[in-house]
Structures are given as structure tokens and as C-alpha cells.
Amino acid sequence: MGPQGVGKGTQAALLSTHYGIPAISTGDIFRYNLKNHTPLGVKAQAYIDRGELVPDELTNSIVRDRLAKDDAAGGWILDGYPRNASQVDALDSMLKGLGTPLDKVVALHADRDVLLARMSRRAKVEGRSDDTPDAIARRLDTYERETAPLLDVYRDRGQLVSVDGSGDVDSISKTIIGLLG
Ligand code: AMP
Predict the structure, then answer these.
(1) Strands, E assignment, the chain
(2) 14-24: string of b/e by CB count within 10 Å (b at 16+)?
(3) pLDDT digit string (tens) for 94-136?
(4) pLDDT of residue 132
(5) Between 135 and which of 37, 57, 69, 130 could a Cys-Cys bridge form, CB atoms 3.0 to 4.6 Å apart?
(6) d(CA 88, CA 11)
(7) Which residue's alpha carbon is at the smallest distance from atom 15 of ligand 1?
């Protein structure tokens, strides 16, 4: 978990290689569906372009389907989910159903100026439709309002591992792996 631009996707990919388990990014799944104009992509487009959360019903169902796939049976890394309190509840019930507990939640943090600089760089490279200044500001505000409070939920459960995401990619990855064991 962490705000946009903190490096969740990059670190999830490195952890995926290290542990040999899939990284499941709801943002990537949405972007794939947008690009291919699937019914899911069409439903999600306006929310994503505005920098708002896609409704829980849609988001929860893509995670539920993805976690049920064979390659997720031995473990997984969720990137960008859960993002609000109702997604935490939905994930709890999915995992109960699957009989696979959540081990740890990795929270990455960095100052807002670091995040803004990274996102404006990424906007130039990737041309994401939601990396406009307005959408970026809205996504960071949504993170602070809806997602950041969830860190306390996982801290209270003793599952939170908090890591500074502002350094270089490899040392952050080593720190996370060291803390996860
Ligand atoms: P990301 O790449 O994780 O920043 O996700 C890009 C966009 O996809 C977000 O700004 C949301 O519009 C949507 N999205 C990704 N994950 C979620 C989620 N867990 N709940 C709702 N919307 C999401």
C-alpha cells in the first residue's frame, strides 16, 4: 500500500520475482481492460480518468476472480488493493473463503513532492490518461482520505511493515525482503 508514485508497482514486480508468486495490480488490470475496450474497461474509464476509485463492486469482483486462478494458489502480492474500508472487508471475506491468510501488508511512504516529481516523469514516459495534474492531485487526496486510514487497521492487526519509498529501488526492495523474511 502507498500513495501514487511511491513505487508500489516497481516493488511488487521485484517481490514477485524474488518470491516466485504473481503480483496482482488492480490498476494494471483496469488499464488492460481500458486498452482493449472490454465491458469492464468501458465501465471503469470515467472513474480512472477523473482519478477516482472505481466502484467497489467492480473492483472486488476482479480481485475475487484473479485470486481464484491457479497461479495464485501458492501466494500473491496485491498492488493497489484494498484501497478503502469496504475493500478491506471484501478481501477479508475472499481470503476466508479461499483459506489463504494475509501474511503482511507493506506500506511505502514518501513526501508529496517526491511523489509529484515521479508522477510527472511517468506521465511523460507512459502517457497515462490519469497522470494529468488534476487527476494526480485527486488521486493523492483520495489516497489520504480513503486509503491511508487503512494502515491503522493493519497495524492494529500486527501485519503492517512500513518502509521509506524515497530511496533507490534496489535498496528499498532489500529492506522489504529483509523485513518480510
Ligand atoms: P493505480 O495504477 O493503482 O494508481 O490505479 C489506477 C486507477 O485505477 C486508480 O486511480 C483507480 O481509478 C483505479 N483503481 C486501481 N485500484 C483500485 C482499487 N483498489 N479500487 C478502486 N479503484 C482502483
Answers:
(1) 23-25, 77-79, 105-109, 160-164
(2) bbbeeeebbbb
(3) 999 999 899 999 999 999 999 998 888 888 888 777 888 888 9
(4) 86
(5) 130
(6) 21
(7) 27
Query: Which of these is catalytic: 50, 128, 138, 155?
Result: 128
Asked if residue 1 is part of any domain, the answer here is: no
Is 59 close to ligand 1, i.e. is its CB under 6 Å away?
Answer: yes
The answer to whether residue 72 is domain-embedded is yes
Indicate which CATH number applies to the domain containing 82.
Answer: 3.40.50.300
Residue for cell digits 479461499? 98
Q: How far apart are CA 171 and CA 98, in angstroms?
A: 33
Q: In this predicted model, what pLDDT tens digit does every residue of 14-59 receive, in sequence order? A: 999 999 999 999 999 999 999 999 999 999 999 999 889 999 999 9
